[in-house]
């Protein structure tokens, strides 16, 4: 074979190898991307399965890469989801109902926990709901805590003023007397009770039937495109939920580390939650009720049309996890 032909064969072989290498790299990148989920985590025990799975290695055991991005509120996490910055967002039921109404592409893909510990905590001298008439109740407006307070007041026929207080400012607001009572979710509720040092009044509220649902949401096309990763993610959360239900020390420690809360406080708070991963069909009716409430108080634009929430529940990843 002539020298020129040898050079030609060598060049062709090199080109083929380069093309094969590029294809392999592209395939690896695509595979890696489909197996990776970016999750917007509201730093709150309501979604305790995430830090437990992350620190306990459950995500690795189930073959999914999870990048956790922390958020202070569900509203912020939902905004990141709507902006395409995360694949999955965590948020409570009230802000989720509004986000689903405004964004047709969003789906609820899991209900991570339920909590029935909502209550109103008041300063000394306020014995019951009737004593709250004309008083100020601090709460993050438009949230599950605000919904609970409004429902409790309505059930008792009491008129009080709900004022905006951020979760992180609750203890200061109640301690300084800026508000007369607060309605807030955990762990801030426990912190308020602690700062009042035994003088606070946990007001007896007639049954409102309210259970806070801590949800996982995603865009429909993302859930379909990354279906395998979603199944693995929820399988890992199911494992973590079992550890939380069993009150395993390692699970409590993982949540305490992730939330920067005292270990004893976290252990107490976690016992108030049902961490069974599910997505019951009757959640749709609950979301409809919450959206109607938000519209009536202008937390949701009245011009946003009603939503068929049943069509927004996608349990496919749970069924196969």
Automatic annotation (TrEMBL):
Residues covered by the Solute-binding protein family 3/N-terminal domain: 36-252
Matching InterPro entries: Solute-binding_3/MltF_N (IPR001638), SsuA/THI5 (IPR015168)
SUPFAM superfamilies tied to this protein: Periplasmic binding protein-like II
Stored Pfam families: NMT1 (PF09084)
Keyword terms of this UniProt record: Signal
Signal peptide: 1-26
Annotated family: Belongs to the bacterial solute-binding protein SsuA/TauA family.
UniProt name for this protein: NitT/TauT family transport system substrate-binding protein
Organism classification: Bacteria, Bacillati, Actinomycetota, Actinomycetes, Mycobacteriales
């Amino acid at each position: 074979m002539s020298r020129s032909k040898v050079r030609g064969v060598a060049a062709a072989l090199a080109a083929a190898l380069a093309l094969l290498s590029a294809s392999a790299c592209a395939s690896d990148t695509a595979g890696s991307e489909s197996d990776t989920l970016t999750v917007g985590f509201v730093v709150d025990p309501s979604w305790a399965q995430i830090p437990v799975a992350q620190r306990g290695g459950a995500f690795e055991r189930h073959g999914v890469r999870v990048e956790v991005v922390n958020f202070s509120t569900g509203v912020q996490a939902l905004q990141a989801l709507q902006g395409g910055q995360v694949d999955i967002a965590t948020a409570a039921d009230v802000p989720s109902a509004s986000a689903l109404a405004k964004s047709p592409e969003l789906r609820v893909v899991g209900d991570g926990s339920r909590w029935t510990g909502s209550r109103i905590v008041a300063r000394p001298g306020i014995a019951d709901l009737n004593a709250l008439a004309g008083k100020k109740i601090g709460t993050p407006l438009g949230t599950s805590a605000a919904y609970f307070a409004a429902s409790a007041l309505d059930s008792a026929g009491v008129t009080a003023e709900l004022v905006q207080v951020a979760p992180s400012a609750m203890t200061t607001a109640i301690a300084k007397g800026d508000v007369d009572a607060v309605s807030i979710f955990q762990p801030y509720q426990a912190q308020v009770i602690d700062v009042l040092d035994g003088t606070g009044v946990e007001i007896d509220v007639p049954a409102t039937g309210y259970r806070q649902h801590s949800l996982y949401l995603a865009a429909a096309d993302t859930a379909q495109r990354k279906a395998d990763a979603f199944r693995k993610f929820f399988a890992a959360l199911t494992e973590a939920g079992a550890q939380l239900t069993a009150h395993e020390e390692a699970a409590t420690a993982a949540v305490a580390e992730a939330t920067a809360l005292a270990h004893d406080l976290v252990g107490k708070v976690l016992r108030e939650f049902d961490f069974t991963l599910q997505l019951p069909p009757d959640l749709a009716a609950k979301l409809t009720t919450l959206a109607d409430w938000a519209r009536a108080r202008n937390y949701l634009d009245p011009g946003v049309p009603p939503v068929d929430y049943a069509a927004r529940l996608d349990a496919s990843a749970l069924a196969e996890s």
